[in-house]
C-alpha cells in the first residue's frame, strides 16, 4: 500500500492515545489538541531515538515518519510501530535501559528536573 493510501485507510485513535485528551474529547480527531499531543509525544520519542541515530515526525496528524541520519525513511501508523521501524532503520535493537542512553538523557535534562 502506498503512503497516501495508508494515511486514508485508518484514522482511528490508537490505544496509545486513549489515555490522552485525544482519546476522550468531542473534538474532531484532526483537531488542534490531538495535534499538539502528538507533537509532544514525538518530542519525547525523539529524545530516545536521537541516541540511535533516528528521528520521528508527525505526518498529517495521522502517521509517523521515521528516518535515520542517512535518509532511510519509513512511514508507520501508530506510536508502537515507531520503535520497530527505528530498530529496522538503525540496524540494531533499541534498548530503553541502555546505560549510555540513560546517561545521555540525564545530561540533556534541564536543570532541576527529575527524570
Name a few traits of the molecule.
41% helix; alpha+beta; three-stranded antiparallel β-sheet; globular; 115 residues
Written account of the structure:
By secondary structure, the protein is of the alpha+beta class. The protein has a 3-stranded antiparallel sheet with strand order 1-2-3. The chain has one domain (about 15-105). The termini are far apart. The model has no long low-confidence stretch (mean pLDDT about 80). Strand 2 and strand 3 (about 75) form a beta hairpin. The protein has helices at about 5-10, 30-50, 80-90, 100-110; strands at about 55-60, 65-70, 75. It has 4 helices and 3 strands, in the order ααβββαα.
**Computed Rg:** 15 Å
Largest sheet: 3 strands, antiparallel
| Class of secondary structure makeup | alpha+beta
Q: Assign a percent range to the helix content.
A: 40-55%
Query: What low-confidence regions span 5 or more consecutive residues with pLDDT below 50?
Result: none
Amino acid at each position: 500500500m502506498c503512503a497516501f493510501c495508508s494515511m486514508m485507510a485508518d484514522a482511528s485513535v490508537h490505544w496509545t492515545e486513549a489515555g490522552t485528551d485525544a482519546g476522550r474529547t468531542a473534538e474532531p480527531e484532526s483537531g488542534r489538541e490531538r495535534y499538539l499531543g502528538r507533537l509532544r509525544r514525538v518530542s519525547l520519542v525523539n529524545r530516545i531515538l536521537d541516541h540511535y541515530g533516528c528521528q520521528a515526525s508527525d505526518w498529517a496528524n495521522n502517521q509517523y515518519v521515521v528516518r535515520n541520519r542517512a535518509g532511510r525513511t519509513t512511514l508507520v501508523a501508530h506510536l508502537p510501530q515507531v520503535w520497530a521501524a527505528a530498530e529496522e532503520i538503525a540496524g540494531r535493537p533499541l534498548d530503553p535501559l541502555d546505560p549510555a542512553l540513560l546517561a545521555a538523557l540525564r545530561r540533556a535534562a534541564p536543570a532541576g528536573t527529575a527524570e
